[in-house]
Amino acid sequence: MIKPVSCDIFCKVIDNYGDIGVTWRLARQLACEFNIVVRLWVDELNSFARLCPEADATLECQWYCGVEVRLWRENFAAVQAAELVIEAFACKLPEIYPTLMAERKTVWINLEYLSAEDWVEGCHKLPSPRPPLTRYFFFPGFTRKTGGLLIESELLARRDAFLTDAEQQRTFWQSLSLPTPAADTLKISLFAYENAALSDLLDVWAKGQQAVLCLVPEGRILPQVREYFAALKSPPLLAGLGESGYSHGNLQVCVLPFVAQERYDELLWACDVNFVRGEDSCVRAQWAGKPFVWQIYPQHDEVHREKLQAFLALYVAKLSPNAAVAMQCLWQAWNGEAISLAKAWVDFCAVYDELDLNAKKWAQGLSQNNLALNLLDFFQEIGTIHAFEIDEQ
User: Fold this and answer.
1) Which pLDDT value is given to residue 37?
2) Domain ranges of the chain
3) Which fold has domain 155-366?
4) Distance between CA atoms of 312 and 328, rounded to whole angstroms?
5) Which one from 19, 265, 266, 354 is the annotated catalytic residue?
6) Of residues 43, 83, 279, 354, which has the active-site annotation?
7) Predicted confidence (pLDDT) per residue in 255-301, tens digit
8) 201, 188 in Cβ contact below 8 A?
9) Rounded to 5 degrees, what angle do the CA atoms 317, 318, 323 make?
10) Is 377 noted as a catalytic residue in this protein?
11) Helix, strand, coil distribution of the chain in percent, nearest 5
12) 188: helix, coil or strand?
């Protein structure tokens, strides 16, 4: 493979941790697995520091995991452009930067948002002339005709080692100051945007016959969780969890401090069901190989519902009719459709074993379509095109 020596990735933090989460993962993988010199330009370092606890949000230049992280200031100073430039999610490069790129004949890629919609395959790798440069669209996705998904080379092996090693699992629970849950406890991670269906979901867990341990990473859903327990006449504090633990009926809730990306993977592996939001956590939940529920980022024109259904159509394709309907109903209820969430949850649990097996097979199939590898293959492909054009001239 002909790969770039250097790569600049530009990221604007738009929605919490989604944009920076994806670009930080990509930057680390290109640097660590392919020995590429990577600069990650970020316009807001506080969010980055939450994902990388070692980082200092006050520093304009710092290095972590082989990546140079730079503050992207509005008055962008001239630098040498990299051989490969990734403009994440159409964030619009600094005004001076395309001129610097033209001097070096840089390969310019716009990394788009993830979608399962049919039109993505037709738009993947399309050129967009920006004389004297050409920008290319690169779409992550779930089929071989798209750019694939971010996955580190040893991720699934590390996941499987964790799931088969009781000591690793005990160490994980101890790191949360929790005892290892009983075998019959349903372990759920809950990472979500604000959601009107939350009270119904917590109610069905509290009133159900099975013990539920719900782990809630710090985030936008947390105020609603606290309001739910505050509204109870006597919301007892869960012993051993300090001020961040609650108990109601068969439900126990533990609020977790924000964790680094690597620790979040372990959380997903350790749980039986994962509620996730946005793009980055959704992809990581798929690699976990566990049943999950996705809260898609809501858009004012409701187009997110079409995106949700497009993904569901792919994901449930090999499920039995009962399991496919159960999964779709729970996802729709969690995403604001007028469906009984309590019934949807009961139906979901009834087909859990089939969903669990499907999740493992789905992850294994997706792992063959590696976004970082596909990006570098495309870099080589564009370089060949450019060389041919020069010869023709």
Assistant:
1) 97
2) 6-150+369-392, 155-366
3) Rossmann fold (3.40.50)
4) 7
5) 19
6) 279
7) 998 777 888 999 999 999 999 998 899 999 999 999 999 999 877 77
8) no
9) 90
10) no
11) 45, 20, 40
12) strand
